[in-house]
C-alpha cells in the first residue's frame, strides 16, 4: 500500500500550533510534501515566527503524526523560514476567525 500526499496532509491536519489554536495545514505552515519510494516522505514546513517557543514540539508532533500513517516509511522534517510565513498563507476560515 503506497502512501499519498492526501494521507500526509490529513495527518498533519492533526498537528496544532498551541499558541494560536489552529492546525498547521489551516495556518499554511506546510510548504511541501514529497513522496519517495511510495512510502518515504519529506515534509517542508515553517512556523509563524522563528522565535516560536514550541518549535521543537511542533516538529516532533508533525513527524510523529505522519509516522503513524499505515505503511509509512522514513519521515523527514525540514524546517524553513524562506519564505517567511504571513497571515495571508492561512486558510480563508482561519483568517476570518482571527479577523484578518
From TrEMBL:
Positions of the MIP18 family-like domain: 5-76
UniProt superkingdom: Bacteria
Pfam family, one: FeS_assembly_P
Protein name, as recorded: Putative metal-sulfur cluster biosynthetic enzyme
Species whose genome carries this gene: Mesotoga prima MesG1.Ag.4.2
Amino acid at each position: 500500500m503506497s502512501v499519498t500526499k492526501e494521507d500526509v496532509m490529513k495527518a498533519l491536519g492533526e498537528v496544532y500550533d498551541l499558541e494560536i489554536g489552529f492546525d498547521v495545514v489551516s495556518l499554511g505552515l506546510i510548504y511541501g510534501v514529497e513522496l519517495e519510494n511510495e512510502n518515504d516522505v519529506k515534509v517542508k514546513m515553517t512556523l509563524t515566527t522563528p522565535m516560536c517557543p514550541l518549535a521543537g514540539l511542533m516538529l516532533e508532533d508533525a513527524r510523529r503524526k505522519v509516522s503513524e500513517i499505515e505503511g509509512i516509511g522514513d519521515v523527514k522534517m525540514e524546517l524553513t523560514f524562506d519564505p517567511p510565513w504571513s497571515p495571508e498563507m492561512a486558510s480563508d476560515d482561519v483568517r476570518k476567525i482571527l479577523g484578518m
